[in-house]
Specification:
2 copies of one chain form a homodimer.
Chain A (H helix, E strand, L loop, with lengths): L6 H14 L6 H8 L3 H13 L3 E3 L6 E3 L8 H7 L20 H26 L3 H8 L1
Antiparallel strand pairs in A: 1-2
Chain A binds a DNA duplex through helix 3.
Chain lengths: 138, 138
DNA sequence: ATGGTTGTAACTGTTTTTGTTATAACCTTA
DNA sequence: TAAGGTTATAACAAAAACAGTTACAACCAT
């Protein structure tokens, strides 16, 4: 990788706009705020919908939160846009030589270490809610 | 990104092999343990050398650690193979619309949140030393 | 001088990301 | 019912990153 996809930051942007505005936000309107193509927004809104965070109204337009901002954490959003494969942040090289003591054990040794590092990051994300972010925009 | 590159796990593999074996480890030998092309190994060893973790002997072959295994953490290795741009794990979309309260503030609000999430992960990586890993291979 | 090694450049195929165009399906309202 | 704005989604393209490969120069003990 180089970095975690902007899908995540755009998803946070989308939910923040929806949480803040009283009137209905269409994909085109949000695209104007994010400054990108509306299809990008709809794609990400589709993921947020699939994750149960958003209710989108086809035809009429706009979307509303399906949970209160207090109940939506950055981790929920992060997971919704599934930025990493199989929810694994770190990738480990495959098929090491099992003749070698290192090659034989590297995967399990690293798996447990990296899982914990990833968990530390995710716990920090889970610590912040959309409602806290909302307060910073007002 | 999809996931963090295998450069990191391969770098850990390389240093573990060197830390464990008494005799000199050539790039070809390590490539055999990792089960990949020797050039991949040399490239990563070059990064570890540049980071001051490794001393490589051109011509004669082999490499030795430049710090004791107690002093080398997973974070040192992670940083050495500079797996992310500018050491920033998360990417944030650019040029949001500054007319919008969200667009105007999203970058700074997210920057501080994501920096902390990344820091939490890195602290966990800094917590584990090569010497601890070494013990798990023996 | 030879042979094994490291250091690098150049190239390839694959995958991911971001953005785009196009089109079908949806729903209000006039 | 027709029109107009909207969501849903497929298909495509350009750019970047990754892992691997070939090739070759530079290095050094014997």
């Amino acid at each position: 990788m180089k970095q975690i996809s902007t899908r995540f930051s755009i998803a946070v942007h989308i939910l923040s706009v929806i949480a803040l505005s009283s009137n209905d936000c269409t994909g085109d309107f949000i695209a104007g705020s994010v400054n990108t193509n509306p299809v990008i927004i709809r794609r990400i809104m589709g993921m947020l919908k699939k994750a149960g965070l958003l209710e989108v109204r086809p035809g009429i337009g706009g979307a509303t939160l399906r949970k209160s901002p207090e109940e939506i954490t950055l981790l929920d959003i992060y997971r919704a846009v599934n930025v990493t494969e199989e929810n694994q942040l770190f990738r480990i090289h495959e098929d090491p030589n099992i003749q070698c003591p290192v090659g034989r054990n590297i995967e399990s040794v690293l798996q447990s270490e990296l899982r914990e590092a990833q968990a530390a990051m995710e716990q920090r994300l889970a610590h912040t809610t959309l409602s806290q972010l909302k307060a910073k925009f007002e």
